[in-house]
Amino acid sequence: MSRVKRGTTKLKRRKNVLAKTKGMRGNIRKKERQATEVLAHAGNHAFQHRRKKKGDFRALWTVRINAALKEHELSYSKFIKMLKDKNFGLNRKMLAELAKDEKETFDRVVEQVK
Hints:
By secondary structure, the protein is mainly α. It has helices spanning 7-20, 32-69, 76-86, 92-101, 103-113.
């Protein structure tokens, strides 16, 4: 069997790992073993936070809608219940954008739901 020299492959892998940790503090960016461990954890956190971001945005929409409904003396939960009863086709994201950017349109939606 022929001999395989692995120098270039190993160096390439090491170079890629250390390039990904560029800008981090301490020995994490200099030592390969610590860099690979940090990258594994970073990947896990990135995955979890991509999922968490969806809930964060939904909470933001809820706050925006609730703030806009205070002028109409309505609570968020009662308004959503009325929307469901009337089979309105607007979701929370659309309602939040209307409440933030187009006040008159949001007021008309609230009046129709009432």
